[in-house]
Write a structure and sequence with these properties.
- One of its GO terms (biological process) is L-leucine biosynthetic process.
- Pfam families: HCS_D2, HMGL-like, LeuA_dimer.
- Pathway: Amino-acid biosynthesis; L-isoleucine biosynthesis; 2-oxobutanoate from pyruvate: step 1/3.
- Keywords: Amino-acid biosynthesis, Branched-chain amino acid biosynthesis, Isoleucine biosynthesis, Transferase.
- The protein is of the alpha/beta class.
- The chain folds into four domains: 277 residues, TIM Barrel (Alpha-Beta Barrel); 69 residues, no CATH class; 75 residues, Double Stranded RNA Binding Domain; 58 residues, Double Stranded RNA Binding Domain.
- An eight-stranded parallel beta barrel has the order 2-3-4-5-6-7-8-9, surrounded by eight helices. Strands 13-14-15 form a three-stranded antiparallel sheet. Strands 16-17-18 form a three-stranded antiparallel sheet.
- Helix 2 links the parallel strand 3 and strand 4.
- The relative contact order is 0.07.
Length: 524
């Protein structure tokens, strides 16, 4: 396998995305994870642009990274200023990073309109900056900004900018599709032309404005590019950067290119979700390779086929990237879906068992009423247990009442819930307040049951979604409530459906508690 070096710029380019902001501590934690994954270069930021990046380069020196090299990012010197007097260049050197990457203008349009200098003077900026940095840094990379657009506009000048970098003896020249509008066939033609004239190792830095960043990066590797720049989950300004979570498995599995080890790649999904978490963004379930739905199967024909041979509907084994095959249960399900889910939950079912057909009929009838089990697998497991007669009734709700009261025009509504439950021979009657009727009901249920089942104190309501089902009945329409709950070890989803939103929420809350009690009993 030939080696392709991965250069991650999540901590710099990724943070330029809308709605993403990372603390210095977040950046250090992500750098640790990137190092564990086997990423060769981690671009920490632009130390000359803001105090946060200066702090990162100071703090990252305290970390004992396994193998990753930290890169500092900046630009060529300013016109009329020598490199040793340019604050941007001096700050890059002071950061004491393992590598320095600077960008320069390769598009004549930018040289004239943005820098407002002559084309010849721009070549001097590139050469002077890189030659000076080579004397002060272990490795120096040159990002040829807007290279593909520049080449299409003026190929001779674009190549001259690369030759200026080559003459400065840089370690790698990275061809950048900064506006993200270049097509894969254009990338191929241009890289072939560049390789005829430039002997320095080449890299690729693609943006995703035309949804081609991953394809362009892989195409570039196929043509001999040795460094690929990108971000975790494709984070980046506008439409994002090339997504390393897609590039890495494509390189290893599809193209037989070495970049990280097989063991490291098994942590790719874990890293993806870690970065989503620190960025405070919900993971994209439809993301290739690492998303929840990447290897999820819903149609009965599909499920039946993958049980015989996964390759029938899966382009690779999900375990290679730390993902797994998921079988979804819906009104499109067949027996194979039910059997697959039963096996997943360690429930012994047979395809000819009448219970299998009963569960299938129940699911289809319930989904016809608006239930959805794709995000509520805990409710589905309880449904199977009830059909098999293995469900234990830990408690009975004898009744509840919820009051939502507004006492003044300028005051917030007050919510209070009262509930009566029976556990064994004991009845508990209690009340609780909340920030809304559902929260009050949740608090009251927990208050009543925690006396009998202290482990319920571990449970947290993590997410709450309400969907008004299309019935053309306006405010009398049915609603579906999906609740995600969790404890210290795991998460689970439950569902409720009713024309009363409180009742729908109640169903999902009860299932959540019921599921926790069953799992706790199994673990004892």
């Amino acid at each position: 396998m030939s080696l392709v070096k991965l250069y991650d710029t999540t901590l710099r380019d990724g943070t330029q995305a809308e709605d993403i902001s990372l603390l210095v501590e977040d950046k250090v934690r992500i750098a640790r994870k990137l190092d564990e994954l086997g990423i060769q270069y981690i671009e920490g930021g632009w130390p000359g642009s803001n105090p946060k990046d200066v702090a990162f380069f100071k703090d990252i020196k305290k970390e004992k990274l396994r193998q990753a090299k930290i890169a500092a990012f900046g630009s060529t010197r300013r016109a009329k200023v020598t490199p040793d007097k340019d604050n941007n260049i001096v700050t890059l050197i002071k950061a004491e990073a393992d590598a320095i990457t600077i960008f320069g203008k390769t598009w004549d349009f930018h040289v004239r309109e943005a820098l407002r200098i002559s084309l010849e003077e721009n070549l001097e900026l590139i050469y002077d900056s890189l030659e000076y940095l080579k004397k002060h840094a272990p490795e120096v990379f040159y990002d040829a900004e807007h290279f593909f657009d520049g080449y299409k506009a003026n190929p001779d000048y674009a190549i001259k900018t690369l030759k200026a970098a080559e003459e400065a003896n840089v370690d790698c020249i990275i061809l950048c599709d900064t506006n993200g509008g270049t097509m894969p066939f254009e990338v191929a033609e241009i890289i072939k032309a560049v390789k005829e004239q430039i002997k320095t190792p080449l890299g690729i830095h693609a943006h995703n404005d035309s949804e081609c960043a991953v394809a362009n990066s892989l195409h570039a590797v196929d043509l001999g590019i040795v460094q690929v720049q990108g971000t975790i989950n494709g984070f980046g300004e506008r439409c994002g950067n090339a997504n390393l979570c897609s590039i890495i498995p494509a390189l290893k599995v599809k193209m037989a290119k070495e970049c990280i080890s097989d063991e490291q790649m098994r942590h790719l999904r874990e890293l993806s979700r870690f970065v989503y978490e620190l960025a405070n963004i919900s993971p994209d379930k439809h993301q290739a390779y690492v998303g929840n739905s990447a290897f999820a199967h819903k149609g009965g024909v599909h499920v039946s086929a993958i049980q015989r041979h996964p390759e029938t509907y899966e382009h690779m084994r999900p375990e290679l990237v730390g993902n797994c095959t998921r079988v979804l249960v819906s009104d499109l399900s067949g027996r194979s879906n039910i059997l697959a889910k039963a096996e997943e939950f360690n429930i012994n079912l047979d395809s000819k068992d009448p219970v299998t057909l009963e569960i299938l009929d129940n699911i289809k009838e319930m989904e016809n009423r608006g239930y959805q089990f794709e995000g509520a697998e805990a409710s589905f497991e309880l449904l199977m247990m009830k059909a098999l007669g293995t469900h234990r009734k830990f408690f009975t709700v004898l009744g509840f009442r919820v009051i939502d009261e507004k006492r003044g025009e300028d005051q917030k509504p007050l919510a209070e819930a009262t509930i009566m439950v029976r556990v064994g021979g004991k009845v508990e009657h209690t009340a609780a307040e909340g920030s809304g009727p559902v929260n009050a009901l949740d608090n009251a249920i927990r208050k009543a049951l925690e006396k009998f089942y202290p482990k319920l104190k571990e449970v947290k309501l993590l997410d709450y979604k309400v969907r008004v089902l299309p019935a053309g009945q306006g405010t009398a329409s049915s609603t579906r409530v999906l609740i995600e709950s969790g404890d210290r070890h795991t998460r689970w989803g439950t569902v409720g459906v009713s024309d009363n939103i409180i009742d729908a929420s109640y169903q999902a809350l009860i299932d959540s508690i019921d599921f926790k009690l069953h799992k706790s009993e199994e673990q004892e």
